[in-house]
Hints:
This protein has 2 domains: 1-60, Zinc/RING finger domain, C3HC4 (zinc finger) (Herpes Virus-1, 2-Layer Sandwich); 179-195 and 202-506, Methylamine Dehydrogenase, Chain H (7 Propeller), CATH 2.130.10.10. Helix content is 21%, strand content 34%. It has helices at 27-37, 71-139, 174-194, 205-209; strands at residues 15-17, 24-26, 53-54, 163-164, 212-217, 228-233, 240-245, 249-254, 259-265, 273-276, 282-286, 292-296, 301-306, 313-318, 324-329, 333-338, 344-349, 356-361, 367-372, 377-381, 386-391, 398-403, 409-414, 418-423, 428-434, 441-446, 452-457, 460-464, 469-474, 481-486, 493-497, 502-506. Strands 4-13-12-11-10 form a 5-stranded mixed sheet, with no helix packed on it. A 4-stranded antiparallel sheet has the order 5-32-31-30, with no helix packed on it. The longest helix is centred in the first third of the chain and has 69 residues, at 71-139. It holds the Pfam family U-box.
Amino acid sequence: MSLICAITNEVPDAPVISPHSGAIFEKRIIEKYLLENGCDPITGQTMKAEELIEVKTPPIVKPKPPSATSIPATLKTLQDEWDALMLHSFTQRQQLQTTRQELSHALYQHDAACRVIARLNKEVAAAREALATLKPQAGIGTSAGPNSMPQHPSIASEAGGVATQPIEQAGMSAEIIQKLQDKATVLTQERKKRGRTVPDELITQDQIKTFLTTASHPGLHSASIPGILALDINSADHSKILTGGNDKNATVFNKDTEQVVAILKGHTKKITKVIYHPDEDTVITGSPDMSIRIWNVPTSQTQLLLRCHDGPVTGLSLHPTGDYVLSTSSDKHWAFSDIRTGRLLTKVVDTAEVGLTTAQFHPDGLIFGTGTDDSQVKIWDLKEQSNVANFPGHTGPISAISFSENGYYLATAADDACVKLWDLRKLKNFKTIQLDDGYEVKDLCFDQSGTYLAIAGSDVRIYLCKQWQDLKVFNDHTALATGVRFGKHAQYVASTSMDRTLKLYAIE
């Protein structure tokens, strides 16, 4: 049964019912009728459009026109639809091709921009290196005294009479042993005279707490191979700072004039250990290229080239006499050499035949400590060339050791996020400074009075000895700190980092 409009007698598109007569109407027609007459067309009763009731019906499927009922007409309709589909597909393919071309052009522009940025970064790095070299040249040579430096830092090479150390061991003569003993006796007596007193000029712990970053120098080493790996300060002239870098160079820098004094070039691999001679303008450097170089700073030339190891040099320490250097290597040996003649005096294999990672002389010079790959700290008697004590307890290779000037304390670190303090009189660990999980310790250093201990690694920290109180933490390096040293009377602290900067901390 279909619905029929009571006015038009046709099937309505939008049927509605009159509540008065119950008749069905086409909505648009009955609304027009009510607008003109205002009453139900069947009963004549007054009615408004709002009273109409809509009827919900499924959409009406109108029959096809007569022109589409034959087979030819149906085929023509299908052909028209196919043509329209093909035209739409062609348009879509054109748009896809255009989009692909635009994307290819954008990618080419991006690649070109990346190349330009890389080239500009390289040019900026080269410009910074040039600036770091040109800056000191403006200040060098202005003084006319006998100690004035040349206008251009020289570059050391193998030429120029560099002496290479013979491989044969000359041995520890009685004369050398007596010299070592005499020096130790003098140093011990001096330490006893000083007693427990500290210099009046020594910075107090309250002043240490007020230390701020007073200088940051990023231009001492190459920007293309970033990273400063080693640090030392001239104990006779605390304005001179020595650094060794990933760029295979060592740099002597004057912190007071902010000038580069010398750039020492000659190693074929990075420089991992550096020593500034306390009494002379001489520098000692060690490298994984298996060599140790003795440099003359005023001329920037290599005076001696020592080759006493068959593996990377991992540790260097200058004897208190200033005439001999101790070196360790991953070749499992430590060596004792004369830096005046270039002679290898003795070379001893580790008792456990494991790689050595670091070394330092005791302040008296008759004993020294080495670190090993198997977490051991070993104490050696230099005269007897024997291992006299072992300090186990760390986990991982030993990364740093440092003797206190008081002669009693030894600080050690490894890959276990802690620093251990050892009493050399009792041969035992009496304190462990536990650091944060994952903390890496790369360097340790007591100040010259033995009052403070500095730690470099994930940050730079200063501790008060005996109480082992944390006085100050510096965390402004953007990468791992690799070296730390105290200036005279702890008036400043210097640190280096893999971020290529030398930072100085002091009272502002």
